[in-house]
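Re: [help] complex structure
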Amino acid sequence: MIRRFGRTERLLHWVHATGFLAMLATGLILYLPALSELVARRNLVKNVHLFTAIGWAVAVTLVVALGDRARLADDWREVEAIDADDRRWLAGRPARQGRFNAGQKLNVILTAALAVVFVVSGFFLWLGERDHRFLLDGTGMVHDVAMYVSVALLTGHLYLALVHPRTRHALRGMTHGDVREDWAREHHPKWVEAERGL
Amino acid sequence: MDDRAIGRAAFLGVVGAGMAGLFFARDATGLLGRILPDQVAAIVPTRGWRIYTIGPSIPRIDPASYRLTIAGAVEHETTFTLADLHRLPTAQQVSDFHCVTGWGVDDVHWRGVRFADLLAQARPLESAVTVRFVSDEVPYDDTLTLAQALSPDAMLAYGMDGKALTAAHGFPARVVMPRMYGYKNVKWVTRIELETNYDRIGYWEQRGYDKDAWVGRSNGAATVY
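Output below.
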């Protein structure tokens, strides 16, 4: 076995996943006409959505502040670097990948960017109801579009992590922290070689 | 380009597009109907409607026992059944619907009765200046001035897009005032009261929204539609 994710990384992943799914569920009740009609209780659902958002933000902040910040910073540096192999991989050609393949890097980058977009547009949705000078025309649309893009990303993410036979072993890295070395050599050879000093 | 600049550009690009969208994005929900598969398009609000309510459930009104009462500053308090409403002169119009929160629906086809025809039998007193619409969704109500209600594009609608109103859209009858934001377009109207002053504050107006809710000219908006 080889260690892929530490406790801070796994905790951050699951805190974000939990918050996202809770906000998606309550958000869809507010957004989809059939669900709005079925559940009604709009004020209650809206409050649950808002307090989930606050809880999510506090939890993410705590994980980053109290966790292994150096490790997270290394992750981000690694994720930002879309190298020549990654560009080849994205173009659909065979290319050796590191600890994150190019698709995983893009998923992290988009997820982080969308989190910022959700926070800012959500804040203005909240503020606009209280001070109408901040009732910006596009706020709701931005929040909605971010939801659609996120759901598309999440669908692919869940398929690869839970369903697709060749990739789903990766889930173990996010639950236990380690993955089989032979699997890692096949999917992330550059990382295994660097780790084992080959 | 430095490898890391690519990832950073992608991150900043998405964040930047989101921030620009706050100011410049417009409701493009209709597009979804064209890009999503039919099964998904049937669920998401492709027509643009969101269903906003204040209560624990959507009012389900039995059409047989529905009564609309017109009372207050009138010569004759009058009560209509749904059949009575249908017998009044029918008005039709195609108009846009704007929610104060930014979404809207273009070209909604409404069928109903003009307030002049609706109020004729009850005969508002000379002193009546305000029309208060009371919803079955307690405690929702809102007002129009009598002059606003009598404008040629305002009506009490019982039909939408060629069909009877659905429960979610205010069955059996709702206010349509397209030049004002949706919160003035009271759904599930069961009572109309004429008042002799314009003092009453409607449900959302008690929560800070403008009483004269002109689309694009109220609630801090500078939008030109």
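Residues 2-196 of chain A form a domain with the Fumarate Reductase Cytochrome B subunit fold (CATH 1.20.950.20).
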